[in-house]
TrEMBL record, chain A:
It comes from Edaphosphingomonas laterariae. GO terms for biological process: phosphorelay signal transduction system. This is Two-component system, chemotaxis family, response regulator CheY. It comes from the Bacteria. InterPro entries: Bact_response_regulator, CheY-like_superfamily, Sig_transdc_resp-reg_receiver.
Automatic annotation (TrEMBL), chain B:
It catalyses: L-glutaminyl-[protein] + H2O = L-glutamyl-[protein] + NH4(+). Signal peptide: none annotated. The gene is cheD. Keywords: Chemotaxis, Hydrolase. Belongs to the CheD family. It comes from the Bacteria. InterPro entries: CheD-like_sf, Chemorcpt_Glu_NH3ase_CheD, Cytotoxic_necrot_fac-like_cat. This is Probable chemoreceptor glutamine deamidase CheD. GO terms for molecular function: protein-glutamine glutaminase activity.
Length: 121, 187
């Protein structure tokens, strides 16, 4: 059974690109448009890993990560941030919130797949 | 009865900012005019009439190799990056995704007989706006002549002119993603 990855990004184009890159590598992909939609989906699903953007409406990536880390069943789940942001300050904030890794867009599908493999338990 | 005093519309001094290929700029300052000259590149101008903020980017998909666009998704990833940078900066300045209005300019095919990269750029930009649900208010793309675009971003006012074919166009450089693009850092 393929592992499921939740892709959280407010851009449908970016979600489509992620879906294409990940399904090609054997993953099942679920999508959410922001942190709120992600939490709703996560109420009844348990993905293998979450990839989240930072800048999103309603709930941004920082808020999503912080919220997930308060929930015991998501405490150890890998969460990769995929963002256009590259400032050290935001990277440190993501790390403090509980992110597992930080990837700067535009992403290289091979590097993304490699990161997923490295953080997979 | 005194005659009403003459009123003069006050327009702040204009500040022109040249938006070079691979960059974007967002502002809520009505004095700022974003300007660029385009050949096959695309400039997307976004405006939120409620937040009164606007911005422009200027991008070119990957250069064609051996007469063909690369088909490994790299071009699309770069174009998406250019669009997302602009959209994100608009949202940070108070714009709302649902109020964004877009104008597209450029996408000319300047050199007959070569791959129609301008057409590819225009198609990509239109597709992005459709997929991301951003309303396209105006498009002046295609053809075979360069354009100059002046965008008073905070007011949403655009002027697009055809310019001489030998106009200096900032399209000599290959697309330059950020130095850190694609980098992975695991904590």
């Amino acid at each position: 059974m393929s592992k499921t990855i939740l892709a959280v990004d407010d851009s449908p184009s970016m979600r489509m690109l992620l879906r294409a890159a990940l399904t090609e590598r054997g993953y099942a992909v679920a999508e959410a448009e922001d942190g709120v939609a992600a939490l709703e989906w996560l109420d009844s699903n348990a993905p293998h890993l979450v990839i989240t953007d930072i800048n999103m409406p309603r709930m941004d990536g920082f808020g999503l990560i912080e919220e997930l880390r308060t929930r015991p069943r998501f405490r150890d789940m890998p969460i990769l941030v995929l963002t256009t942001e590259s400032s050290d300050e935001k990277k440190a904030r993501a790390r403090q919130a509980g992110a597992t890794g930080w990837i700067v867009k535009p992403f290289d599908p091979e590097k993304l797949a490699s990161a997923i493999r490295r953080v997979s338990h | 009865m005194n005659a009403p005093a003459a009123t003069t519309l006050h327009r702040p001094p204009e500040q022109r900012i040249n938006v070079l290929q691979g960059t974007s700029f967002v502002t809520d300052d009505p004095a700022v005019v974003l300007t660029t000259v385009l050949g096959s590149c695309i400039a997307c101008c976004l405006y939120d009439p409620h937040a009164r903020v606007g911005g422009m980017n200027h991008f070119l998909l990957s250069e064609p190799r051996h007469g063909r666009m690369r088909d490994d998704g790299e071009a699309e990833r770069y174009g998406l990056y250019a669009m997302e940078l602009l959209v994100n900066e608009m949202l940070k300045r108070g714009a709302s995704r649902s109020w964004l209005r877009a104008h597209l300019y450029g996408g000319a095919n300047l050199h007959a007989g070569m791959h129609a990269i301008g057409t590819d750029n225009g198609r990509f930009a239109r597709d992005f706006l459709i997929k991301d649900g951003i309303e396209l208010s105006q498009a002046n793309i295609g053809g075979n002549t360069p354009r100059r675009v002046d965008f008073r971003a905070a007011l949403g006012q655009v002027r697009c002119r055809i310019v001489q074919a030998d106009a200096r166009i900032d399209e000599n450089r290959a697309p330059q993603p950020p130095r850190s693009s694609g980098d992975v850092e695991l904590f």
